[in-house]
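MODEL INPUT / OUTPUT PAIR
PAIR INDEX: 1
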Amino acid sequence: MRSGVAEFNFSVGQEVITSFNKPEIHVLDGNLVDHDQLLTFQKYEIFQSKYDSEILKIHLQCAKLQFDMKVCYQVYPDIAGCVKWLEFSNYGRKDLRLNRMFFEVLNTCPGEFADSDFFKKQGIDRVTPFHNASGDDDIIQLHNDKLNEGMLLGNTAPGPLRYFMLYPCWGAGISIGYNMSGADFNKYISPGESFSTDKALSYVYAGDKDCPKTLNGFREMVRRQLPLCPDNGSVMYCTWLPFLKNINEELLLDLAERAAALGFGWFVVDDGWFTDNNWEVDADKFPNGLEPISEKVRSLGMKFGLWLNIGNDYGKIGSRPEDNALDFNGEPKPFGFGRKLTSRCMASNHRDVMSAKLLELAEKYDVDYYKLDFSNTCSPYGMMAYGCHSTEHAHHRNYSDSILEQYGSMMQLRNEVKDKFPDLVIDFSFETFGTEFPSIGALQFSELHHSSNMNTLKPEILRADRIRRTIYEYSRVLPDERILGSLICLQNENDLEHLLTPCAGTPLVAGDLRKITPENADVIGKLSACLNEIIEYGPMVDKVLLKGNGFDGYARFNKLGNGLVAVFGKTDGFTLNIPGLPEGKYELVNIISEESLAACSADELSNGIELKSSINGVLPLALKKL
């Protein structure tokens, strides 16, 4: 670790602001870097917060530019890490424009930089030590094989605003902050207003790079930054596939009966329920409105979910042109190719229109879950320019601050709905969020996050094993119970594998349930019942990936030790290793046959036990604490 290095820096307009740092010759251009010290110390405070954590806030003042700031650190007694962010208050008479910001700078690593390997994409992809990462990259990992120790670093900034810069030879060796290029960060703070940055998460560990204890420790650190979720694991059924918009009252009432009989916990009505007349219910499909669907779903013991687009003018095409997102030519941003839809700017009055609509629908239909869809800020498909170039929208000034304020408006919309309906689960889909890979930032906006449309409707295009591999990557260190990893289809072919695959996260399924045979329905029902029993005692928060000769799988379990084990492949026997379980005795039970396969201790499971069970496809096991 190098001393004398600034631990944050940013600009206010053209004025560079930095914490204390020792002047040095920069290797990039050979010039001396010596910033004026414009901040003066005022005081500090320490107080208790959630999860028995402590927060230290160091109060600083910049008299020249008339703003106060706080450097904030949060530590937990049971986690080897720190959460850091900055807070600003403008006490002057002029606007402040924050830009070019790193809210965390670390010139440190496990051992020597020369001995450390660098990984992006949540620790999956190795990169050079000289690297910048933005957009989809919210977690990087450094690991020293010589010392067998390392660190994980997270950035909670949303979407393309995320930014890491890794240049160990510079004073700012590892910098965590906001993008400074295509998705440029700018924040205007008016007199009397305040602003808090996103957060940097730093976590250190000793042990193997992929050790489950390490990954679960950082997973818990991430989880503590997220909103609480009222349900963490029961199966969610969505009507989108294979029906698309071809839905009606008779079909959905039938599907709801079948979903409840299979033990599912959520029933979501996807696109196809409204017309283009201000999102009015399609009377031809639903002559009695959506009330019979909502009432039926809830009478069957499930939660009622509803899809709504918030990113474009679908549902009211051509209306409110003043709310359209504008491209750099000042023209409305089209939504995709060959469509007549126009992207809306969420940092316009569109935010208030959508908030009112969501509140209206929630009141009318007792909505338990919203799937909010369609891009406006940017596109996960790379088909839309970032931000909005309007200078007349209510909640941003110009292009420079549009991306930040569009995400800020999404959060404002969320808060307005949650203030009135605190138990309603909000899900900004991966398309609305605009990034392909799930992230800490996305999970901070959504209790549950629809992170992919991967499905098995056409197995010649995509099979469950490929989906499963992707979900493993999606949730390597992110909380599994928040990630709706695929829209996998249940309609009789390989249904057990198809249900167990999304159970690597929170299971989201689709399919024509009318095609499921009674035999398969019984299998699905047993697995759903097992999941529902487990989550009654708390969500499955820890995970161990299982790998071996001819098989893959996972073990997920809650704080009590109860959980689900799924093994996929073909083998006559295998060694099952599940480290990290609470101390005590456990039983492994085949969920389908209800046969007890083993009884052993947590230590024995950690060291590995031999199971003689033959697998030809999939083996689902309940992990029961005795």
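PAIR INDEX: 2
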Amino acid sequence: MTNSFEDYLNTDLFFVIGSNPTEAHPMAGAKIMSSVMSGKSKLIVADPRRIELAEKADIWLQLRPGTDIPLLNGLMHIIIKEGLHDQKFIEERTEGFEALKATVEKYTPARVSEMTGVPENLLYDAARLYATTAKAMLCYTLGITEHICGVDNVMSTANIAMLTGHLGKEGCGVNPQRGQNNVQGACDMGALPNVYSGYQAVVNPDIQAKFEKAWGVKLDNKLGLTIPDMMDAAVEGKLKAMFVLGEDPVLTDPDANHIKKALTKMDFVVAQEIFMSETAKYADVILPGASFAEKDGTFSSSERRVQRVRKAIEPIGDSRPDWWIICELAKRMGYDKMNYESPRQIWDEMASLSPIFAGINYDRIEHTGLQWPCPTVEHPGTPVLHTQSFSRGKGLFKAIEHTPPAEMPDEEYPYLLSTGRILYHYNITTRYSSALDAHRPEEAAMIHPADAATLGVCTGEKVRVTSRRGSVVTKVNVTDKVMSGMIWMSFHYKETPTNELTVNAFDPVSKTGEYKVAAVQLEKVV
């Protein structure tokens, strides 16, 4: 996030696109709802479904799944045509504007309306409201990133924010919500195939030398594999072993049957878990990890805030904290320098090697977390990014064309499947809560009344959903909150493994899966 959660109560307008925060990010969603309901903020929502926020929106843009780039290009077309762009910000803070202008020129309101399904008058209303509001905040999540053009989608959100000067100020910015707890922290700590902690490139020889000196080993400067690359390599017989720590890819990754094949093909799989997950069932060894309540350390929130996590109880049974297990594995594999006594020592070493965290230590975040970058112990942290300049100097507009989804409905598979999350469950772990499971024990896929009539089904009855990759049975909820020709499902239920249906297609840069669009057949189950 370029800004802070505090700014959710300090903005005049939310533009929420590809995000359902009241269900998937309820704390953030509550702040948005509070600001809107109090009359402080106006609200634009772009979503194929009539989500809860859409009910409260000043403008709801019901776009077809996979048409975010045409929508944003169309809004920018109107903003430029009507002279509503921030010329001063563009001249002083950006470059590449003419290339952007030439591209969005082709995305006329009429063309964009045809591509997205959004009426032209709503395109004009949304463009004018976003461009003319002094403090406008754009929020997105997985509805933007989980496409084969996810990186381009994200760049498009940056384009429209720069075009209107809604960056580097309080109450503004581009503010993605992370998909899971501490995903931000995991990335910050270097759990990516191309960087060390603090987003320091592994291909940079100076960075490599710094970490080699600190750790006393020779390091490889080659980029690692992403998760999809790992699974493909395993199926091909090139990857022989895998250590899965706190993830359940059998349920959460696209094309789940491909994931199962990869796990079966490898010689050795280790799962570190607190439950017997669907992935752990494929493991040769299961290491009992500890839950958040059984360990000390830090979590980093979506707003880049590093916060303390404190142990409430001792680890149960034979379970151990993640850091202890990793250190013990390293020592038993011959590396004897990971002899830390606490997460605090690990943090201090990491911060000493990572400039954006250098000013953060446990004493400073004892009561209140700090937002990076925080380069010195005197620095107060950074609530708002890019106040004076961008990390590359000037912000670069990217001229981006529409990329259709990898798979669209056709004669054989006539319905569009889109997936996401529901309020009652968090990923797949809360299914182990008897109270939550009793409240929402099974999948209830959303389909439009017109499609329900065609299939001859009512709410509570079952349909079989079949894609080119798999087939599952689910109960349905007949509702006009989704558009005709579409079925919407969550991925929380092992009894209805939705990701056996989703496509094995990924963004070429981020390798994020395209969970939001797949082609399926539907048939009533008698």
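PAIR 2 NOTE: The two ends are 48 Å apart (CA to CA).
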